[in-house]
Amino acid sequence: MLLTLSPGRRGRLVAALGTAQTIGWASSYYIPAVLAVPMAASFGLSPVWVFGAFSMAMLVSAMIGPWAGARIDRLGGRGVLMLSNVVFACGLATLAAAPTPAILFLGWAMIGLGMGIGLYEAAFATLAGIYGREARGPITGITLIAGFASTVGWPLSGLMLVTWGWREACLGWALIHLCLALPLNALLPRGTAPVVAPVAEETGAAAPPPFAMILLAVVFAATWFNSTAMAAHLPGLLQAAGASTAMAIAAGALIGPAQVAARLLEFGLLRRFHPLVSARMAAAAHPVAAVSLVAFGGPAAYVFAVLHGAGNGILTIAKGTLPLALFGPVGYGQRIGWLNAPARILQAAAPLVFGAALAAWGLSAVWLTAGIGLVATGALLWLRRR
Question: Which residues form the signal peptide (predicted)?
Answer without folding.
Answer: none
